Amino acid sequence: MSNLFLADAIVVLHVAFVAFVIAGGFLAWWWPWVRWIHLPAALWGAVVEPFGFVCPLTPLEQWLRQGDGGDLPAGDFVSRYLFPVLYPEGLTRTMQVILGVLVLLINAYAYGRLWRQAAG
């Protein structure tokens, strides 16, 4: 198996992780054990960007690409793959804050409903 294939698989895993951070709370409706995985993942997702931490998947992907002689894309995972999708040209700071609040509200709704079901 080539390193480039593994690097591409890391990118797919990274995208899946971001989707899980955003909407994983809904999975807990059907599988309550998911919350034990999602809550730490959501916490990591809420901390990594604002504080400038580097997700370990980014250097792993870069190491795999370099080791196989592949091109090393500039920037980190977020700037290469997610910004063009999540932050298109013309996106204002206000819109970014609204999107961040939307992610929080999505998860608050998911866990609020789960909590109400458990309490009721």
What this model shows, in words?
This protein has 120 residues and is mostly helical. The chain is built from 6 helices and no strands. The N and C termini lie far apart (51 Å). The model has no long low-confidence stretch (mean pLDDT 79).
* Oligomeric assembly: single chain
Distance between the termini: 51 Å
Q: Low-confidence segments, ≥5 residues, pLDDT <50? A: none
For the biggest sheet, the summary is:
none
Number of helices: 6
- Beta-strand residue fraction: under 5%
Per the principal axes of the C-alpha atoms, what is the gross shape? globular
Mean pLDDT: 79
Order of helices and strands: HHHHHH
Helix content: over 70%
Structural class: mainly alpha
Beta-strand segment tally: 0
- Rg, Cα atoms, Å: 17 Å
